Amino acid sequence: MLTTEQVAAFERDGFVTVPGFASRASCERLQARANEMVDAWEPSEHRSVFTTNEQERQSNREFLDSGATSWCFFEEEAFGPDGELAQPKMLSINKIGHAQHDLDDEFERFAYDPRLAEVADDIGLVDALALQSMYIFKQPRIGGEVSCHQDATFLYTDPVTVTGFWFAIEDATLDNGCLWAAPGAHRSSLRQVFKRNDLDDPASSDGTVFDVLDPEPLPAPPVELDATTSSLVPLEVEAGTLVVLHGLLPHWSGPNRSGTSRHAYSLHCISGQADYPDWNWLQRPADMPLRPLAR
């Protein structure tokens, strides 16, 4: 699927963009299905909010159980001072995660496209297994920032094999919070890992902790989206574009303060030949094993 030049770009930069990988029609079908899922979803009394801010994250049961289900997580800024939604539910959801690719027909068709298995082969991801996926809404005006991170922090394998397949369902621009990445920085170290803690105590296993492996900071985000102020570069792409991300690549996306949403779908895969520790936050039950990309 990938050209020699695209494979070389991935090896050099830690990411590669593949314009037009998904058709506009398939993007529209996935978007429609995601909207249907949000419309049908009723939140629990505890409102799960998604954030990558380490100081503010409070892991909860919905988050830790979502490896085997499809759960909706609110934007951090979705609620007003009275604790009620400040806009309709449909415009308040940050993402759906994390197993819809194995639980929903439309998401399954999109995720298990045989061409994606070919891309995995092209970049050397051996025995690729679909681990988790997220449908990301990046809502108008309240779409949350995703802090600079490495995917291997959250989905660790030994050796590191996690690879992100990120699809632009809508056009991603500077204004609505496109991805930014640090070319070549995938050749640096893994800074930290995100673990479940108190695994031996079921009563307290809903907590998580970051273990620092290397104190070297990740690249700083740009100041006011000025690319000259950061080593990160913007990835403005049209709907249907696939962006392949190495698991050690630092990447970031800013808040969406525009009036236009930035829907995206992200599928993370790992090699079936690597070890996936039981301290990873995302775990699947024994009766829901990971499935290979190739069908």
The number of distinct structural domains comes to: 1
Low-confidence stretches: 54-58
Radius of gyration: 18 Å
Quickly name the level 1 CATH class: Mainly Beta
Taken as a percent bin, the fraction of beta residues is: 15-25%
Report the principal-axis shape: globular
Secondary-structure element order, N to C: HEHHEEHHHEEHEEEEEEEEE
The description of the largest β-sheet is: 8 strands, antiparallel
Give the CA-CA distance, first to last residue. 16 Å
Tell me the number of strands.
Answer: 14
Q: Remind me, CATH topology?
A: Jelly Rolls
In DSSP terms (H or I, runs of 4 or more residues), the helix count works out at 7
Which percent range fits the helix content? 10-25%
CATH architecture: Sandwich
Mean pLDDT: 92
SS class: alpha+beta
What's the CATH superfamily, by name? Answer: q2cbj1_9rhob like domain
Q: Mind explaining what this structure looks like?
A:
- With 295 residues, the protein is of the alpha+beta class.
- It has a single domain, classed as q2cbj1_9rhob like domain (Jelly Rolls, Sandwich).
- It has seven helices and 14 strands.
- It has helices spanning 4-13, 24-40, 61-65, 100-103, 105-111, 114-122, 151-154, and strands spanning 15-18, 70-74, 93-98, 128-136, 146-149, 163-168, 179-181, 192-196, 208-212, 233-235, 242-246, 251-253, 264-271, 291-292.
- The strands form three sheets. Strands 1, 2, 3, 4, 6, 11, 13 and 14 form an eight-stranded antiparallel beta sheet that branches. A four-stranded antiparallel beta sheet has the order 5-12-7-10, with no helix packed on it.
